[in-house]
Amino acid sequence: MSVVLPRMAPSSIFKNPTMAARIPRPQVRDDAPVDTRDEYARCLWARYFNTSEQHLKEAVQAVGHEAASVRAHLSRRTSSERPSAS
What predicted TM-score, i.e. pTM, was given to this entire model? Predict the structure, then answer.
């Protein structure tokens, strides 16, 4: 049994590059709430604060979702687990 795949037309995303810009992405700003439920957002915030995702979750549980509070809580730590910190 052989499978014949239909010939695909070029994707409209390549014809119209603004299509990719319409996909909502989490905002990483000091006035944005820290979202730890979404995996992509959690990864962005962990990179933004230069910490692990686990420490980010713990900080949010300790001080809430406000980015400034999370930053202050994480700055109390003396070392970072991220390789870019060394």
Answer: 0.60
Residue pLDDT, tens place only, 43-81: 999 999 999 999 999 999 999 999 999 999 999 875 555
Domain contains 73: yes
Range(s) of the domain holding residue 76: 34-86
- State yes or no: pLDDT of 28 exceeds 50: yes
Whether 40 and 75 have beta carbons less than 8 Å apart is answered as no
Using DSSP's 3-state secondary structure scheme, residue 28 falls into coil
CA 55 to chain centre: 14
Measure the CA–CA gap between 63 and 33, rounded to whole angstroms.
12
4 part of a folded domain: no
In a domain? residue 45:
yes
